[in-house]
Design brief:
With about 525 residues, the chain is α+β, with helices and mostly antiparallel strands. The chain folds into 3 domains: about 80 residues, no CATH class; about 260 residues, Metallo-dependent phosphatases (Purple Acid Phosphatase, chain A, domain 2), CATH 3.60.21; about 120 residues, Immunoglobulin-like (Sandwich), CATH 2.60.40. It contains 7 helices and 30 strands. The protein starts with a helix and ends in a 6-residue tail after the last strand.
């Protein structure tokens, strides 16, 4: 009997220390439980069991709870502890659907010279920091709404978001939503009305920090997220749904306020602590699961709109065969595929989707009949959002233009008419909004005509170029016109077939995206008889 008790004691000691980060005698330690909150009061009752194997982090170190649900991590005077929501469980959410999965420890609170309030003083480290979870059915398949840059600079723009995007999503069956940063436009007081508007959908909503969500009067990067943390929690964290692990990253590095009081520049980037956190968390993840990184600034782009540490990040991520990363920030849509030059070591490239925005071109452009700016993006795509559908460790994605039919996936640019002897000189240009280098586009004239390939080219969208010229002197209420034209990464072009017979025909385009979905668009084309050369 004594031998059995000794073995049990050794096992208990081993469970209590497994995965615990190293510390020194001077290190302060935080302790707590992750538990099944059966009565929903947020407090661990005597009969509420702890949950084993759940990841908890301080933003750098990652530990997993022991058989009692207990965890232990190093602490300092500026740290946020958070639980990584495991499969089949959910954290509490507030009245606006914001997940409450963290505990901020900042005894002195945020600096008191910030324009927008940060974290109030939290006092001494509690004796136990407990994270409640409740059971939630998570099927193999689920869908997620993804917004790029809502970026409301005014309350009016929050209302435009509500009428332009949120209204059509009422009753959504999505399990949760994500906003990829630039939630607002520097006025952090708009966090609350924005949260209420998006929260009206009634689903949990996770938020990424963007460069326009910073405390611009902070003296350094470390204090630039004080208001964001007060409202949303740690800007870097993770959560699991089904067989998908979402890792949310703060990839905005702020130089801080200058001596003259002016806001400093920002750039994309990740810290060593973030890379350690990602590596530590993924060490305990099943290799075949899907890993989804979500961030604001894209991994690839012109400086400073890129992440210099993408090689280190991709080397960590390369241990897993099923991966995806999402960003926004650029106010246009572009798909990147990362390879060996970026640190990615697997044969199939890593897909990085730089998504368009719900605010489009920063809520610019002439108002439509509803009083909402058309906000067309400079790549020629309309403003909108994405719907991601997950099935186990696989996924599909589709773009949805705001207040447009789901079938509106491309725009055909062609003249209304051509001559039968000039058709072979007449160009058709197609903007396939969600297109990438992996897409295939074809066109035909009339149902009996052959399908002909279109060539992927990078050039300005002709519709946006015309719109820009028409509106360049127009100034919407926020004082901005449309942004300058750029070459769009999702344009295809081809010439019409030769010697089309006179009459009115259907010009039809079909596009196959990289997920295998086929989209169609068509428009009438009038072919006039050849002009008499005499």
């Amino acid at each position: 009997m004594r031998r059995v008790l000794l073995v049990l004691l050794l096992l208990l000691c081993a469970c209590a220390t497994t995965g615990e980060p190293a510390g020194t005698e001077a290190t302060a330690w935080a302790h707590g439980f992750v538990f099944a909150d059966h009565d929903g009061d947020g407090r661990k009752g005597i009969f509420e069991r702890g949950l084993r194997g759940v990841a908890v982090s301080n933003g750098r170190d990652v530990v997993r709870t022991d058989w009692r649900g207990r965890w232990r991590l190093p602490a300092d005077d500026d740290v946020t502890f958070f639980v990584v929501k495991p499969r089949g469980w959910m954290t509490p959410v507030d009245e606006n659907g914001l997940p409450r999965f963290y505990r901020i420890h900042r005894p002195a609170g945020s600096p008191d010279d910030l324009k927008f309030p940060g974290v109030p003083p939290t006092g001494a480290l509690p004796a136990s920091i407990d994270f409640p979870l409740h059971r939630r059915s998570e099927w193999r398949d689920f869908s997620v709404l993804v917004f790029g840059d809502p970026q409301a600079y005014t309350l009016q723009e929050v209302d435009w978001l509500g009428r332009d995007v949120i209204a059509e999503l009422a009753g959504t069956e999505a399990l949760f939503g994500l906003s990829l940063g630039d939630l607002v436009g520097d006025d952090l007081a708009l966090f609350e009305p924005l949260n209420r508007t998006i929260g009206s959908l009634g689903i949990p909503w996770y938020n990424v920090i963007g460069n326009h969500d910073l405390n611009l009067d902070a003296i350094d990067d470390a204090h630039s997220d004080e208001t964001f943390e007060r409202v949303y929690g740690p800007p870097t964290h993770a959560f699991q749904v089904g067989r998908v692990h979402f890792i949310v990253l703060d990839d905005v590095v702020y130089a801080g306020r200058g001596e003259d009081g002016a806001s400093g520049p920002y750039a994309g980037g990740l810290t060593d602590d973030q890379l350690v956190f990602i590596s530590g968390y993924l060490a305990g993840v099943r290799r075949s699961d899907l890993i989804v990184l979500v961030m604001h600034i894209p991994l690839l782009g012109p400086f400073p709109h890129q992440v210099p540490q993408r090689r280190e990040l991709m080397e960590i991520l390369s241990r897993h065969p099923n991966t995806l990363s999402l960003s926004a920030h650029m106010h246009m849509q572009q798909m990147h595929f990362l390879g060996p030059e970026d640190g990615w070591t697997r044969p199939e490239p890593h897909p990085h989707m730089n998504l368009g925005t719900t605010s489009g071109s920063w809520w610019r452009g002439a108002p439509d009949e509803q009083g909402i700016p058309h906000a067309t993006m400079r790549c020629g795509a309309p403003n909108g959002y994405w719907i991601f559908e997950f099935d186990g460790n696989d996924y599909r994605a589709r773009f949805k233009a705001a207040r447009r039919p789901a079938s509106y996936q491309m725009e055909i640019h062609a003249p209304d008419s051509t001559r039968e002897n000039a058709s072979s000189k007449t160009e058709v240009v197609v903007n396939f909004f969600a297109g990438s280098s992996h897409a295939e586009l074809e066109m035909r004239v009339s149902a009996s005509g052959p399908w002909l390939p279109l060539e992927h080219v990078e050039r300005q969208d002709p519709g946006y170029a015309e719109l820009f010229e028409r509106e360049k002197s127009l100034r919407p209420p926020n004082g901005w016109g449309l942004p300058p034209r750029v070459d769009s990464p999702h344009i295809w072009a081809a010439k019409l077939p030769a010697d089309l017979p006179p009459g009115t025909h259907w010009l039809e385009v079909r596009a196959r995206d990289r997920f295998g979905a086929v989209h169609h668009a068509r428009r009438p084309l009038r072919v006039l008889p050849a002009e008499n050369s005499d």
